[in-house]
Amino acid sequence: MTAGPGGALLVVGDVITDVVARHRGPLAVGTDTAASILRLPGGAGANVACWAAYSGRGDVRLLGRVGADEARRHARELEAHGVRPLLAVDAEAPTGTVICLVDAGAGAERTFLADSGASLRLGPGDWSEALLDGVARLHLSGYLLFSASSRALVADALAGAHARGVPVSLDPASAGFLTELGSDRFLSLVGAVDVLLPSDGEACLLTGRSDAAEAAAELSRHVPLVVVTRGAQGALVARSGAVCARVPAVPAVARDSTGAGDAFTGAFLAALLAGAGAEEAAAEGCRAGALAVARVGGRPPAGGERRETVGTAE
């Protein structure tokens, strides 16, 4: 059974509470640093789903695992963004939390301190073949590869999608975690995906190359379509061992780069499902990424708003 073009997007990934601390200049070690602090919903998988819905995809579903402490809150937040939450509630582990340190004076670059909590306890028991009913595309967050239980779920999901002819995309998620996992092991785990969406740093880490275009080309020998995000330098599209398109970024004044890659991925997948080619979809991804960096937090506006001007700094 192959899902038709009008089918849903199913995202499987992490649902996290972000604590975003925006400071200006270096952290003052051993004493106080003034910051603006917000507690926001996040998680790469959840962010991708929300940006896909914001970009016009009518049926977006998210499978994730959260603690009982914040299950209702996260379900409400996802629904407010037009995403159907399919959340497993963990009675033992709390919802994951990420501290996002954002230097407002250095291009809004961010550093994460991550406690994945319940999100990495997602496992085969949370998966069902019925989750693929009506699904036209499956997207997997790379964070799923960083625990044994969620890797087992990935194997089941890939097998189910392959049996139904559902294409699968994956974003590597974290250069830090990739270093621990190892590039060879990562590539062996993702050999069955159709689209890989790494950042330039992740692509270079996975290939050992220092040039993002060379890394994109090499990765496209393993995966049919590779789209490398490059922040202010746009994106690269590669197939069959060669870069076939260089997509420019949309200019923006950055306030917080948290979730910019997730925004790109969500908009890119929504465009693919609407019938766009890879280059056109990457252009939509770049536009969403520009909107994301102009906002604080990893999510788009909620409540059905579909248009927003790229903002200016505070």
Short description:
This protein is of the alpha/beta class.
How are the elements arranged and paired?
Blueprint: E1 8-12, E2 16-23, E3 36-42, H1 44-54, E4 60-67, H2 71-80, E5 83-90, E6 95-103, E7 109-117, E8 135-141, H3 148-164, E9 168-171, H4 175-181, H5 183-189, E10 195-196, H6 200-207, H7 212-219, E11 225-229, E12 235-239, E13 242-247, H8 260-273, H9 278-293
Parallel strand pairs: 1-4, 1-8, 2-6, 4-5, 8-9, 9-10, 10-11
Antiparallel strand pairs: 2-3, 6-7, 11-12, 12-13
Helix pairs in contact: 1-8, 6-7, 8-9
Describe the structure.
This protein is of the alpha/beta class and 314 residues long. The chain has one domain (8-25, 36-293): Ribokinase (UDP-N-acetylmuramoyl-L-alanine:D-glutamate ligase, 3-Layer(aba) Sandwich). 31% of the residues lie in helices and 26% in strands. It has helices at 44-54, 71-80, 148-164, 175-181, 183-189, 200-207, 212-219, 260-273, 278-293, and strands at residues 8-12, 16-23, 36-42, 60-67, 83-90, 95-103, 109-117, 135-141, 168-171, 195-196, 225-229, 235-239, 242-247. The protein has a nine-stranded mixed beta sheet, sandwiched between helices. Strands 3-2-6-7 form a four-stranded mixed beta sheet. Helix 1 (44-54) packs across helix 8 (260-273) and helix 6 (200-207) crosses helix 7. It is globular and about 55 Å long. The termini are far apart. Residues 304-314 have low confidence and may be disordered. Keywords: Kinase, Transferase. One of its GO terms (biological process) is phosphate-containing compound metabolic process.
